[in-house]
Specification:
33% of the residues lie in helices and 21% in strands. The chain is built from 19 helices and 22 strands. Bound molecules: flavin-adenine dinucleotide (FAD), D-malate and zinc ion. This is D-2-hydroxyglutarate dehydrogenase.
């Protein structure tokens, strides 16, 4: 690139770069600036500054649509070894796995209902069909159970009494948070009792010196974000489903999300928790200490175990301080290798201020533009094969800005970035995030989706997307997006409708490929029902054996979220 052009770009960058949190709403402010070539003045508007994290468009409110005829599951009765069993066949998303209802489990009767009403009060024992339909159906409308009962405890004591009773009667249960899970873990497979945690939503305390927040498991993530924002803190995790998902669900899935690259795993941020075991015993592990090496750290068993070992009722979590300077760039790269090298450079040059590094390919962008209203490509009319979002968060406005600008300039000069814009206010930052966070929603609108959430070495990640495209041909739309900064690929295959022949082309190929490259078949969504039988692709037989032993120790009757996480043959 000619040096005079570089210099000019640099000057324009300096002029245009504004701090997202401290930007004043100047009238006629040129808020969209493209630093490829000299295309600026795209739009001029005066806007009111809205709190970045409390914008309604960032909330993904979950609404349920009726199940499509061709999706879901079918229940059939069949005679096996002389017994009549209900066989639950799943044809979508995970291969044609057949799950058989465990005959050990009882079915609910009138005495049970009376007992639950005694424990919870009538209002919190729900048998209403409409509410049950929603609670029986997952976010993707792919997995559907047939539970006849939803319980809404309001205290740990009530959870304890419910579980104690269910255990004594051998009634299977499904803990449910915001029901935004993507692996069929949050809904019943058959008639399990749904224990919804939404009524346990108190914020208990915030220590403003240590930043430790203690709250109940049913708090919606976004409510915690807003609460902390007012107190000068942030949550160490952020995800597109924040308007509905609950912190208990986040902890139980060990959710990753958009800030993982900066704040790391919930295994590090959760300082303590309270959980109720299958037999009703309450485990108080609600420590608030950063360092505590007193014996085995049992809380980790409950982080990411998807409700299969206990019900999480309270959590203490380390909230980082809210920093004043946030910047967001939406960039285009000509190929995947450039994205990869950009990540390497971003880690080196942005270091401690890097707070998100997300990517989506051109096909993901097309999907979002075609299916979500009001979304536009900030780099249009040009189209690109890869897009990257880089967010920085720091405490020094001018040096953070300088750092980011210098980095972007160098990356442009080096050919790693082919186009890009810097958000100039909150609304613009939100509109950039909307593109990335909107991919799952766009996929749902496009029709059927086969969803895979993989950890892979960054340099290999996109090879799988390309291999899948070759394998499936034009019949399917294969897209790749995700948390590049964490080596987490979301490989999604979009089709007008579910198709067993296509599925047979995808699985087990996708798992074998991942395993061959020493990746993980679940980076952040968990195993749920979808991948309970696939665990061996990422875990050794010895490890799975130990997991099954732990499950048996903590839940000998197997009542907690059966058929999920571990192969049913091992867990029951
Ligand atoms: P649910 O879906 O209700 O439950 C999930 C699992 O946890 C189930 O197995 C359930 O039994 C168990 N569970 C729930 N609450 C409890 C409890 N209190 N005690 C014990 N077990 C419990 N995930 C990511 O990791 N990163 C992302 O970036 C991300 N983005 C998403 C974007 C969208 C649009 C959607 C729809 C989902 C996304 N997810 C993401 C997946 C999902 O939101 C997360 O897994 C989330 O943590 C689930 O929380 P939830 O409250 O909805 O839990
Ligand atoms: C995301 O990163 O957008 C989520 O994990 C959801 C998904 O994978 O579709
Ligand atoms: Zn994700």
């Amino acid at each position: 690139m000619p040096t005079d052009k570089c210099r000019a770009i640099y000057c324009l960058l300096r002029l245009s770069s504004r701090n997202l949190f401290n930007h004043r709403s100047d009238s006629n402010f040129q808020y969209l600036y493209q630093f490829r070539g000299f295309r600026n003045h795209i739009d001029t508007t005066s806007r009111l500054l809205e709190p970045f994290l409390a914008h309604p468009k960032r909330n993904l409110r979950i609404c349920f649509h009726p199940l499509r005829e061709d999706m879901g599951s079918s229940l059939v009765s069949a005679k096996i070894s002389g017994h009549t069993n209900r066989i639950h066949c799943r044809f979508f998303g995970s291969g044609s796995t057949v799950t058989k209802r465990n005959p050990v489990f009882s079915t609910i009767n009138a005495d049970d209902i009376a007992q639950f009403k005694e424990i919870l009060g009538e209002k919190y024992v729900i048998q209403d069909e409409e509410r049950l339909l929603a609670a029986n159906t997952d976010w993707m409308r792919k997995y559907k159970g047939s539970s006849k009962l939803l319980l809404q405890p309001r205290s740990t004591e009530e959870v304890s009494q419910i579980l104690k009773y269910c255990n004594s009667r051998c009634l299977a249960v499904v803990p449910q948070g915001g029901n935004t899970g993507l692996v069929g873990g949050s809904v019943p497979v058959f008639d399990e009792v749904i224990i919804n945690m939404g009524s346990m939503n108190d914020i208990i305390s915030l220590d403003k010196v240590s930043g430790v927040l203690v709250c109940e498991a049913g708090c919606i993530l976004e409510n915690l974000v807003s609460f902390l924002d007012n107190q000068g803190f942030i949550m160490p995790l952020d995800l597109g489903a924040k308007g509905s998902c609950q912190i208990g669900g986040n902890v139980s899935t060990n959710a990753g999300g958009l800030r993982f690259v900066r704040y790391g795993s919930l295994h590090g941020n959760v300082l303590g928790l309270e959980a109720v075991l299958a037999n009703g015993i309450v485990l108080d592990m609600l420590g608030t200490l950063r360092k505590d090496n007193t014996g085995y750290d049992l809380k980790h068993l409950f982080i990411g175990s998807e409700g299969s070992l206990g019900i999480v009722t309270k959590i203490s979590i380390l909230a980082p301080p809210k920093l004043s300077s946030v910047n967001l760039a939406f960039l285009a790269c000509k190929d995947y290798v450039s994205c990869q090298n950009l990540l390497l450079e971003a880690k080196r040059k942005l270091g401690e201020i890097l707070s998100a590094f997300e990517f989506l390919d051109g096909n993901s962008m097309d999907l979002v533009l075609n299916h979500l209203e009001g979304v536009r490509n900030p780099l249009s009319p040009s189209t690109h094969d890869f897009y990257v979002l880089i967010e920085t968060t720091g405490s020094d406005e001018s040096s953070d800005k300088e750092k980011l600008e210098a980095f972007l300039l160098r990356s442009m000069e080096g050919g790693l970035i082919s186009d890009g814009v810097l958000a100039q206010d909150m609304n613009q930052a939100l509109s950039f995030w909307r593109i990335r966070e909107g991919v799952p929603e766009a996929l749902m609108k496009a029709g059927a989706v086969y969803k895979y959430d993989l950890s892979l070495p960054v340099e290999k990640m996109y090879d799988l997307v390309e291999a899948m495209r070759i394998r499936l041909g034009p019949a399917a739309e294969v897209i790749g997006y995700g948390h590049l900064g964490d080596g987490n690929l979301h490989l999604n295959i979009s089709l007008p409708e579910y198709n067993d022949n296509v599925l047979a082309q995808i699985e087990p190929f996708v798992y074998e490929w991942t395993s061959k490259h020493r990746g993980s078949i679940s980076a952040e969504h968990g195993l749920g029902l979808m991948k309970a039988n696939k665990i061996h692709y990422s875990r050794s037989p010895e490890s799975v054996h130990v997991m099954a032993s732990i499950k048996k120790l903590l839940d000998p009757n197997g009542i907690l979220n059966p058929y999920k996480v571990l192969p049913p043959s091992l867990a029951s």
